[in-house]
Design a protein that fits this description.
about 45% helix
């Protein structure tokens, strides 16, 4: 039997930093403002909850058409 291992990019780049006490550190720098790991995680959670409320589930596919801005990371 083959055991599959999965790599969670969101956990690696976002949740791991929060677990290691860097939640208030700046994760994304922009010309308008900076975003902490906690702020990006909050945006990601709100996005995930909204998509789940729309009926999307695990393994469902979603097409993203977005500008390269902090909201992209929350959706990704």
């Amino acid at each position: 039997m083959v055991k599959h291992t999965f790599f969670n990019l969101g956990d690696y780049f976002l949740d791991r930093n929060i677990r290691q006490g860097r939640g208030d550190k700046i994760a994304i720098y922009t010309e308008r403002r900076n975003y902490s790991y906690n702020e990006i995680q909050e945006m990601a959670n709100k996005t995930g909850n909204a998509l789940r409320n729309l009926g999307l589930g695990i393994d469902d596919r979603l097409m993203m058409l977005m500008f390269d801005d902090p909201q992209f990371y929350a959706v990704f």
